[in-house]
Amino acid sequence: MLLTWDAAAVRAAEEPLLRDGAPLMARAATGLAHHVARLLRGARGAVRGAHAVLLVGGGNNGGDTLHAGALLARRGVRVTALTTVAHPHAEGLAALRTAGGRVLPVPDGDLPAPVRDALDGADVVLDGLLGLGARRGGVRGPGAGLVAPLADLRGRAGAGPLVVAVDLPSGVGVDDGTCAGPVPVADVTVTFGAPQPAHVLPPAAGAVGDLVVVDIGLDLAGPPAVARLEAADVVDLWPVPSASGHKYVRGVVGVVAGSAAYPGAAVLATSGALRAGVGMVRYLGDAPVVAAHPEVVAGPGRVQAWVVGPGVGPDDDVQRSRARDAVARAGSHGEPVVVDAGALDLLPPHVPPHVVLTPHAGELATLLTARGAAVSRADVEASPWEHARRAHEATGATVLLKGPVTVVVGPHGAAYAQADGPPWLATAGAGDVLAGVLGAVLAGRAADVAADPTLPAALAALAALVHGRAAHAANPGGPVTASAVADAVPATVAALLGGTAR
Ligand SMILES: NC(=O)C1=CN([C@@H]2O[C@H](COP(=O)(O)OP(=O)(O)OC[C@H]3O[C@@H](n4cnc5c(N)ncnc54)[C@H](O)[C@@H]3O)[C@@H](O)[C@H]2O)[C@@H](O)CC1
Ligand SMILES: [K+]
């Protein structure tokens, strides 16, 4: 599991070490220079003779970058520092100059020709404008003028420089993953001590690239902020049937899905549940689910978890009433419920955390707006983490917000950000499959869910992980259909449980 700590926790961990005189900046710069050299060797076969351009801001992030530049210069790299403040880190600047690095001040406004030429000729650009000290609003001042030219250079297919973010892509909201202004997009981010929420939360996570953590000796004592489940975590969470387990012990999922307009949603949600290895699926509705899946039992009966809402239309009073009943039962009897799509407007004022909402950004905006906050889809997309949290706080439910990075928020600080699926996964019906997979894992672990209010969040992240990986497996590198994603779930689970996955 990848754990992150917020800026205050990282600073608190640094503080006693700095008081004792531990050379944290030297450790950070040494690790940074090591990874930049490794990347240069990989990209061009040699470190010596490469051209590194440093984007230098006014704080210690710029200091790390200048010191790393000095180390690279000593290894034969031609280093140019583009300084965006009048007084960059003094020691770092002196070290770079002593090592033979060149320094070019960047003014406000148009970039002078030598600055443009330096960027044009760079093999690697180190983004050291802002790190932990970034205040909300993106990069301001002369540094902001470097972001667009850098993006243009990266756009040159195969010919642009490698971009390495120092600690964080400059200007991201460290604790909430927002990008309120222009942010340089990195190929690799080298962070120090511990990852932070912005490394995993959208939209900032999209600017991080590959994440490398350099150990500078921090002891992160407090609770982590946002987690990301990895392949190795699946075996601890997935409901694996015991040899003696019968179908009721393995979990029965009740599905309330589909309507005349969207019968396919019911088939896909049911596919997701079946392929994830549930004991049995009971289907309530008129869609041709049993024809598609003969193993499904039509009609009511005992279930361990519900999936309600996929393809349920706003005028379908019968399905809506069934969905409403399932959500109400979750409050009184404790069966977990996945509430998706057409059932999201049926929530009572407050529900327990084993009610898991699975909206996309537009649906979350509608849900929050219905509860008195004027929120647009764009607001949610700009700050998915904040809005998922608000939805959890407003409803009590565990919230899984779908997107390129799926964010999950539950009670007691349970929080996950999963980036497992390819962009191809943004396809009709994929969300129905996810709802089914999540219903299956909730049913399979219903007894544990009753005992641990944070478990639904972990299981929601688990379902997102498996769903995303199934999309990769369905057609590596190419388009997928929702049905193909569902079909890939059993082998994906087997690989993850068998330890054959990466
Ligand atoms: N504290 C420590 O001992 C360590 C810090 N390290 C580095 O230090 C960084 C944090 O350093 P700082 O606290 O100096 O902060 P930063 O270097 O992130 O930035 C602070 C500076 O940026 C300015 N600034 C803030 N928001 C801005 C914006 N939106 N646009 C333009 N300028 C803005 C501030 O006025 C200040 O001058 C970490 O990210 C890491 O790279 C590492 O050297 C490891 C050890
Ligand atoms: K940075």
UniProtKB/TrEMBL annotation:
Gene: nnrD
Binding sites annotated in the UniProt record for (6S)-NADPHX: A265, G311, H360, D432
Residues that, per the record, bind AMP: K402, G403, P404, V405, T406, G431
Pfam family for this entry, one: YjeF_N
Cofactor, how bound (note): Binds 1 potassium ion per subunit.
Reaction equation(s) it catalyzes: (6R)-NADPHX = (6S)-NADPHX; (6R)-NADHX = (6S)-NADHX; (6S)-NADPHX + ADP = AMP + phosphate + NADPH + H(+); (6S)-NADHX + ADP = AMP + phosphate + NADH + H(+)
Protein name: ADP-dependent (S)-NAD(P)H-hydrate dehydratase
Similarity comment text for this entry: In the C-terminal section; belongs to the NnrD/CARKD family. Belongs to the NnrD/CARKD family.
Residues of the YjeF C-terminal domain: 230-496
Enzyme class: lyase
Residue span(s) of domain YjeF N-terminal: 2-224
GO annotation (BP), single: nicotinamide nucleotide metabolic process
Keywords from the named record: ATP-binding, Isomerase, Kinase, Lyase, Metal-binding, Multifunctional enzyme, NAD, NADP, Nucleotide-binding, Potassium, Transferase
GO molecular function, one term: ADP-dependent NAD(P)H-hydrate dehydratase activity
Subunit and interaction comment: Homotetramer.
Function: Bifunctional enzyme that catalyzes the epimerization of the S- and R-forms of NAD(P)HX and the dehydration of the S-form of NAD(P)HX at the expense of ADP, which is converted to AMP. This allows the repair of both epimers of NAD(P)HX, a damaged form of NAD(P)H that is a result of enzymatic or heat-dependent hydration. Catalyzes the dehydration of the S-form of NAD(P)HX at the expense of ADP, which is converted to AMP. Together with NAD(P)HX epimerase, which catalyzes the epimerization of the S- and R-forms, the enzyme allows the repair of both epimers of NAD(P)HX, a damaged form of NAD(P)H that is a result of enzymatic or heat-dependent hydration.
Its EC number(s): 4.2.1.136
Cofactor: Mg(2+); K(+)
Keyword Isomerase: yes
